[in-house]
Amino acid sequence: MLNVLIVGVGQCGNRILDSINKESFGGRPLAKYYGIQKFKSHVETLAINTAINDLKELKHTRAKDRIQVPHLHGVGANRNVGKKTFEENKELLLRIIEERGDFDVAFVIASSSGGTGSSFAPLLIDAMKERYKYSVYGIIVLPFREEGSIYLQNSIFCIKEIMNGNCDGTIILDNQYLKHLGKDIQSAYDGINSTIANRFLFLLKALDTEMMMVTDLGDFKTVMSGGSKLATMGFGKGDKNMPIRSVIQHSISHAGLLFNLDPYKESNRAMIIIEGDKKYLNMNDITTEVEKLSIEIGHIFKGILLRNGEMPRVLTLFSISSSAELDRLFEIGIDAVHKEKEKKELISVVNDEINSKLDGLEPQY
Ligand SMILES: Nc1nc2c(ncn2[C@@H]2O[C@H](COP(=O)(O)OP(=O)(O)OP(=O)(O)O)[C@@H](O)[C@H]2O)c(=O)[nH]1
Ligand SMILES: [Mg+2]
User: Fold this and answer.
1) Burial class (CB in 10 A: 0-12, 13-18, 19+), 251
2) In 3D, which of 92, 81, 172 has the Cα closest to residue 124?
């Protein structure tokens, strides 16, 4: 049995963690008090935030798992304030984590673009890596592209810091790409959060299960450390009329992925986990599909979970070797930094002009 720690930081990280807890407790709000989590692994969860109101909003996360770092009302998307606040509270947070025990693996979930999550996550991951022996992975959410220049700037600096740090790998998902999951922003958040929660639970189960063909934490580590240390996931669910071939294809299609990736061209390692009743899992079909992928990608780990009577489900994990979408995000992020800088300089010129015009003058009464 694996010992797993899941930490959600900032509002976005907290809400995704809450979605994971919702799924794992079975969805009823009171289940967190008496329910038993349906994780196969031993899982501890922690929601960390500067804003108390964001923590209060959580429905499925136990009160003892909600940690407020005192800093009034969030850090207002300012990563410098966020970093300082983290440093001031680093020992407190590490002590809370240590009190939860020792782990085989930890996941830190946050948005790349807000203040608290985006500044805490890279520092927290590095601090955990420095202090503990277990692997630490990020699950990082990219912003809607129209959310404004501060979020775009934050996002590229957060990703850069995670990539340059000691994190064992980061799964990215993109709000912009997953926008279609809701009619409005709130329902999109809910849809995205439950999508990632379901996939994450599937992944955890697969890493902690005896399978017909085994994928385990070691294989996960190898996939996650390939490429740029960034990865993303895909998912497909079939029915009795859908051949497993199509379910696999769906999981790597635009509709199945969490981020705009071309797995054939932009990935260099992958893991594919297939679950379902034996009668739906045609082994020749599976081998053909996996071979097709591995010719382009390189190495693919394959795991199969047999489940009597269940429809086929496929989870794919792709390490990202290069990404046109990330390049575009960095371009607009860098543009945003320049624009902010120009605006700041303009404001300081205007201020200088006002000051020089007022120089030597006093109000006359
Ligand atoms: N998928 C998803 N994204 C969210 C959710 N809530 C916020 N976001 C995204 O997260 C980013 C903002 O980050 P937050 O997590 O709200 O910020 P924070 O870490 O709490 O930081 P501060 O409030 O500035 O201290 C934006 O890009 C939002 O679109 C959510 O529930 N789900
Ligand atoms: Mg917040």
Assistant:
1) buried
2) 92
Asked if residue 261 has its Cβ within 6 Å of ligand 1, the reply is no
What is the domain range of residue 146? 3-208
Query: Which residue's CA lies nearest to atom 27 of ligand 1?
Result: 143
Q: Are 79 and 157 in contact (CB under 8 A)?
A: yes
Ligand 1 contact, 143 CB (< 6 A): yes
Residue located nearest, by CA, to atom 17 of ligand 1: 114
131 with 244, same domain: the answer is no
**Together in a domain, 190 and 112:** yes
pLDDT of amino acid 308? 92
Nearest Cα to Cα of residue 271 among 314, 307, 236 = 314
- Ligand 1 mutation pick, 21, 52, 141, max ligand atoms within 8 A of CB: 141
Per-residue pLDDT tens digits for 225-273: 988 999 999 999 999 899 999 999 999 999 999 999 999 999 999 999 9
Does the CB atom of residue 86 touch ligand 1 within 6 A?
Answer: no
Q: What is the number of domains present in the chain? A: 2
DSSP per-residue string spanning 244-280: HHHHHHHHTSTTTBSS---HHHHEEEEEEEEEE-GGG
User: 122 CB less than 6 Å from ligand 1?
Assistant: no
The residue from 282, 305, 320 where one domain ends is 320
pTM: 0.94
Tokens of 364: 């006359």
pLDDT (tens digit per residue) in 174-226: 999 999 999 999 999 999 999 999 999 999 988 887 655 667 888 999 999 98
